[in-house]
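Sequence in, structure out.
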Amino acid sequence: MPTSPRKAIQHILVTGANKGIGNAIVRRLLLEHPQYSVLLGARDLTRGTEAVNQIISDHPDCKDRLAFLIDPSSDESVTTARAEVQSTYGSESPLWCIVNNAGAYSTAPTPEGLRELLNINV
């Protein structure tokens, strides 16, 4: 009887995932869909790392399917993350899905702040 080829794990990037809805999406994906590896995106390195550590503490069996990755407000971070994803997971469609959950606002944006707002929200 022929065996079917093992399906490769699918990688999903969730931005704005260190708290709130993004964090809930990450947890749900990890717990309900073992075929997914989830890349947690957060603008703040400390909060992103803490979020990953808390999820792993709550669900140790997800440890090998969760990583901290990206600050969508930083072009340098996005470029570095892209290279890391391709290096780690291969360049043939390394990401299966992106959940663009990150968001920011400002009541009086400065010219410098407008670029950050666009990078995060668009």
